[in-house]
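Please, structure for the following, as tokens.
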Amino acid sequence: MMSDWVFNLYIFVLATFVGYQVISRVPPLLHTPLMSGTNAISGISLVASLLAAGTNHLLSELLGFVAVTCATINVVGGFLITDRMLRMFQKKPSTSPVKSAASHAGAGS
């Protein structure tokens, strides 16, 4: 039992280290596409945390609840930030004074 806990802790620490190394080496230009891709991974972790929250052990239920909360915040926040970044690249409708005056003059006749 204790060796399983140590093994899981080892996997967690290793995944944290590798994740930090991967994310820290991503250029700023790729952060938005990377965030869009990681939203899918966060969705998978949300499903896994729901499974953990549905067990009969009190510790698993508490940790599952925390995981569900964190994964939900991550997914929603990721989609909001991705949407905001994509809106920055959309062209804004330009209204020039000449077109505006011409359209108002034509509307009155």
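The CA atoms of residues 50 and 68 lie 6 Å apart. Residues 28-92 form one domain.
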